[in-house]
């Protein structure tokens, strides 16, 4: 029997079609290390509605954005997709068309466009806008709806720009301080006076400025003991503290996305309270931080490679929570660059996990991922990632790979399983190859030139219970090692 003949035994049919498993090429490797157990999902605080009710509220709050996104999808289907301006806003002509079609004002259309973009209902690709995958899943997938709403919640300052003439540095300080205010409101489990929030904001901004070594007090006398109160900055009218107005702006912005409501007008009795959606979102973020802080290696503070290793023994849900906590603590551009550097290393498991973390980044990572498409080590992962971002069904995304790229990815994933998993998983991984027979697989594996080919074939030969197949795989490993074909 030679290597070109299909191997058949009573135990394992070799000529049966080997299944393609395109969704997560690293899934087999993840299962190899996830068997050690994972943390149970934390329970939300008492009184919070269930996810179906939260999703219903999120859908209600984004009705206008969804309606506009569906109009844009219809325009794209007709070949007249609306194009964005340089800053991402809707072009004037398209805004007029949408306003006429939907019975809205141009101002309402522009607001809905921004909310649709920020929620992932629309995605910008170059000079065109296309419907995002969340729009397709909107009516049937509560998780997609809640993720879209959280994306809008995180971007409240973009959905509700600061007042004209505001010092952008002070506005950025208020945005940075907002999570602490929201945390206090969540832990208070009820209304919080706006006066108290202003006091907290002043203290937090003072801390932010102190961390940057700024002088927090402009008066002739020393600052009082305790947290200094920020004084006016350059450009502010003399004697004017901008923080009360910017707190009002922040509360309006958070209210506009449905995270809170303000009661009592603008007087001394004004108070703010989180909505159920706002309470849930703050709780989720606090839990993400706690999960990361409680991880054995303190993943939130580690470099990307160490963070990914710390997440390798988690099941997908807790791992995503750690990715998001890690990403939230870093600028997007540097975080993406660090993940891609980790993916270039020798450990194929980290390569797959790095692209899972990049899925948590989403569209902001697209330029960096496109830039690495020509790197052999990253190309199959990058192509699959981009296909999913462009709206391909995850189960069909592997169609973007050539046969050679799919084979290279199979070897890379097998290397991850061999390094981190059990022998039975390596045997099961054999079924995920694109080739129809084992001899065809071995022939193409030898030709693809993956640096771990020999180790993978030796490990597969040692693991497989079928002596005839193991012998053929071992022969292929020997031929690769000796440079033969």
Give a description of the structure.
By secondary structure, the protein is mostly helical. It has helices spanning 27-34, 51-61, 63-77, 92-102, 106-118, 133-137, 142-154, 156-159, 168-188, 194-211, 243-256, 276-294, 304-311, 316-328, 332-343, 348-361, 366-371, 379-389, 403-420, 423-429, 438-448, 453-463, 467-482, and strands spanning 122-125, 128-131, 192-193, 260-263, 271-274.
Brief summary:
The chain has 23 helices and five strands. The protein is mainly α.
Keywords:
485 residues, mainly alpha, three-stranded antiparallel β-sheet, two-stranded antiparallel sheet, disordered N terminus
The biggest beta sheet is recorded as: 3 strands, antiparallel
Please state how the strands of the largest beta sheet are arranged side by side.
Answer: 3-5-4
Contiguous low-pLDDT stretches (5 residues minimum) are 1-40, 216-229
Tell me the radius of gyration: 27 Å
Order of helices and strands: HHHHHEEHHHHEHHEEHHHHHHHHHHHH
Structural class: mainly alpha
Helix content: 55-70%
What topology does this entry show?
Blueprint: H1 27-34, H2 51-61, H3 63-77, H4 92-102, H5 106-118, E1 122-125, E2 128-131, H6 133-137, H7 142-154, H8 156-159, H9 168-188, E3 192-193, H10 194-211, H11 243-256, E4 260-263, E5 271-274, H12 276-294, H13 304-311, H14 316-328, H15 332-343, H16 348-361, H17 366-371, H18 379-389, H19 403-420, H20 423-429, H21 438-448, H22 453-463, H23 467-482
Antiparallel strand pairs: 1-2, 3-5, 4-5
